[in-house]
Amino acid sequence: MTSTWSAPGRVNLIGEHVDYNDGLVLPFALPMTTTARVTLTSSGNVTVCSADVDQPVTFAVDVEPGDVTGWSAYVAGVVWALNDLISQTGEADDARPGGIRGLEVEIRSDVPVGAGLSSSAALECSVACALNDALELRLDRPTIASVARRAENDFVGVPTGAMDQLASMLCQEGYALLLDCRTMETRQVSFDPGHADLTLLVIDTHAGHELSGSEYGDRRKACEAAAARLGLGSLRDADPDQVASLDDPVLQRRARHVVTEIERVHEVVSVLDAGRVQDIGGFLTASHESLRDDFEVSVEELDVAVDAALAAGALGARMTGAGFGGCVIALCRNADVGEVEASVRAAYDQRDWVAPSIWPTTPAQGAAPAL
Ligand code: ADP
Ligand code: MG
Questions:
Q1: What is the domain count for the chain?
Q2: Which ligand has its closest atom nearest to the C-alpha of 321?
Q3: In which region does residue 118 sit, left (phi positive, over 0), alpha (psi from -120 to 50) or beta (all else)?
Q4: Is the whole model's pTM more than 0.70, yes or no?
Q5: Which of 8, 46, 73, 303 fits 103 for a cystine, CB–CB 3.0-4.6 Å?
Q6: Per-residue pLDDT for 40 more than 60?
């Protein structure tokens, strides 16, 4: 039995560094996908190959955390999490004795890897969907997302929130996905820049900074400390007056970003619900300024791309993802796209930086069967 599924990467339109504060995020799926072709065998092993990697990797079907590292850990993590779910639900006892007995997995992808566009979730979700189909498990999409998230959190060991996998599983073409990270409730929000003669550009700066891992942990800790000082479970419940009462200036800035960013998500959703996509630009730019000045997770490469895009007439621009590198998004009138792109390229060229990759994107569908 062979099954082939594709799952997309994503861009977070707005709501950055608020997922771990019980906040709201608004990702949409990219047309770029990772495809997993899974064939069931009875070899007792899983063999994985990726068009992006030279050598295939083989591990046992009863793999445990720590057994596999490197890129194939994302696949091994899905096998492990799915095995665990199958054993818990007793599925293996009835229709499919033994659960997963052996697999061959082939991966190909056009999601840029390590650019903050969630190639990791695209990989996990494509494998999880293909396995769900091949094994006829009939898991619903949120359950598949949670299997994929467990793979990343508990097998690979990356402490991400729920956004990436839910976006890859639940997004719909022409919509962004409003996710409440407290209740895990989701809602589709119409997001169709093309309809308003607008283009959303993704600018991959190709910048990556060594510090990003430790800084991410530091920001999470600062948010927890700020919430604790206010006697709150999370900054989701903080109001601007409480934030202003924090006497530590760093904690105050960190908390102010979270509180204002959650408010901006509400505002962007209202504007999109009212069919005024052309009016979200100011919120995108305000988000960038807050991430740059209050949360301090931007870097020069991101700021230069945002400033150059705005100088050439973009309606709004912001870094997207965790920061310290990765991508910028810029919302432009169709007529201004060429100038915005040229302005960003010129700014990079002037500084002798590696040329950015720039492409227009549209909100695409979530995971789907593929050929
Ligand atoms: P992002 O999710 O932003 O792209 P991550 O660091 O979370 O960045 O995930 C990137 C990692 O996921 C890569 O280093 C690699 O281990 C794995 N990965 C993603 N896509 C592929 C692929 N097509 N082939 C092999 N490994 C991949
Ligand atoms: Mg990732």
A1: 2
A2: 1
A3: left
A4: yes
A5: 46
A6: yes
